[in-house]
Amino acid sequence: MASAASVTSLVDEVNCPICQGTLREPVTIDCGHNFCRGCLTRFCEIPGPESEESLTCPLCKEPFRPGTFRPNWQLANVVENIERLQLVSTLGTAEEDDCPEHGEKVYFFCEDDEAQLCVVCREAGAHAAHTVRFLEDAAGPYREQIQKCLACLRKEREEIQEIQSRENKRIQVLLTQVATKRQQVISEFAHLSRLLEEQQGILLAQLEKLDGDILKQQEEFEFLISGEIYRFSTLVEELEEKNERPARELLTDIRSTLIRCETRKCRKPEAVSPELGQRIRDFPQQALPLQREMKKFLEKLCFELDYEPAQISLDPQTSHPKLLLSEDLQRARFSYKWQNSPDSPQRFDRATCVLAHSGFTGGRHAWVVSVDLAHGGSCTVGVVSEDVRRKGELRLRPEEGVWAVRLAWGFVSALGSFPTRLALEEQPRQVQVSLDYEVGWVTFANAVTQEHIYTFTASFTREVFPFFGLWGRGSSFSLNC
């Protein structure tokens, strides 16, 4: 048992330099000194000439920042143990192994009452009918139980630590993807801004030219129309004057005057020529290059931000003999008639499945599968690990290296550890499968409505392959590549 002097000496070592009392919730700052959390917090809040950035340690005057002090759990445990020793020393100097009731040394353990006994306690009537053993004998089975519990707890702790490591990696990958997308958006919109400015200049220049041509034709029109108005005004004045004269003067050269008026040719100029009018009507066509560039921009932006379309084909070396593959290896149909397919280690012999010819070891990829179940049956789509079982029964679940969904007549199921029937707005006929290898996501969506179907989360370490399965007469699928 620790002496009172040694306990006092330890107490002095765990005092707070600010309040001079025992440390409460000890925290450590950058220089290594420890203080009560409350004392240090209040110290940081005291107004003074220093700003928060120039706070200094109350002991060594080293600068520190308020947000950098961290809990010192080991020191907190030491303080707790010292206080426990203080309590024991104040209760008396009795030996720890002595019975508190009789003062005799404790040798036995009562399993019924879970009580430690001395010789006097054991002989007492209260424990006469109980199972009493020596301390070490009684402790043995409990030590074994503790070891088993420790093994289980350590294993579970390791699993949790693995989950922590995996999820932290996933978060870092996602952060990297977001940062990359941010740069892509900035770059693409900067390019679009330059393009829009250039196209704006082109269109405005064309409009300026149209404006100048219209004004030029307006001047020409005004000149021509003014001449016609003058000519007709002259004839009108001549006839009005003729009409006011006496009959003798009116009849003089009347026939030539009338012939000159009747045979006049009236020119009716147009303010805007047909050619210029057609140019004005065709002006919207000048924006077609911009429209094409905008379409290319949106397609490229969506491509950069979304999954890369995968160009895949079926691998006949893996196909089950009941699957009929098309010559272009883009379609498959179920048949009860076995094909004459040579056996190989890569071929499925029980599960009516087929893999894509190429797999993925990284990146973000997507492909679309069109499913035809008009005559019943089912179709399974997803991805599998390269070491997936090819011979014998294949259990379609993540534990076996399979991440897939099954489409059957009237329902869709996610093939997890236990199949889960999914509630969807409509039965998908085209399924988009998206793989994010680094993050570990396998996502399924209705390729037509974009309705989300299901997402698996995994941790890929091997190459994974697009996976397809069929069952039932007339069931088929095709790849939309």
Quick tags:
481 residues, six-stranded antiparallel beta sheet, Herpes Virus-1, single chain, Jelly Rolls, 9 helices, eight-stranded mixed beta sheet, 20% strand, 40% helix, alpha+beta, elongated, 3 domains
Could you write a compact summary of the structure shown?
GO terms for molecular function: zinc ion binding. The protein is built from nine helices and 20 strands. It has 481 residues and is α+β, with helices and mostly antiparallel strands.
What does the model show?
By secondary structure, the protein is of the alpha+beta class. The protein folds into three domains: 1-92, Zinc/RING finger domain, C3HC4 (zinc finger) (Herpes Virus-1), CATH 3.30.40; 171-305; 309-479, Jelly Rolls. It has nine helices and 20 strands. Helix 1 (4-13) packs antiparallel against helix 3 and helix 5 packs antiparallel against helix 9. It is elongated and about 170 Å long. The protein starts with a helix and ends with a strand. The mean pLDDT is 84.
Describe the SSE topology.
Elements: H1 4-13, E1 26-28, E2 34-36, H2 37-45, E3 70-71, H3 73-91, E4 106-110, E5 115-118, H4 119-123, E6 132-134, H5 135-244, H6 247-250, H7 254-262, H8 274-281, H9 288-305, E7 308-309, E8 323-325, E9 331-334, E10 353-355, E11 364-372, E12 378-385, E13 402-408, E14 411-414, E15 420-422, E16 430-436, E17 441-446, E18 452-457, E19 464-471, E20 476-479
Parallel strand pairs: 7-11
Antiparallel strand pairs: 1-2, 1-3, 4-5, 4-6, 8-9, 9-20, 10-19, 11-16, 11-20, 12-13, 12-19, 13-14, 14-15, 16-17, 17-18
InterPro entries: B30.2/SPRY, B30.2/SPRY_sf, Butyrophylin_SPRY, ConA-like_dom_sf, PRY, SPRY_dom, TRIM/RBCC, Znf_B-box
Subunit structure: Interacts with IFNAR1; this interaction prevents association of IFNAR1 with TYK2.
Domain B box-type: 94-135
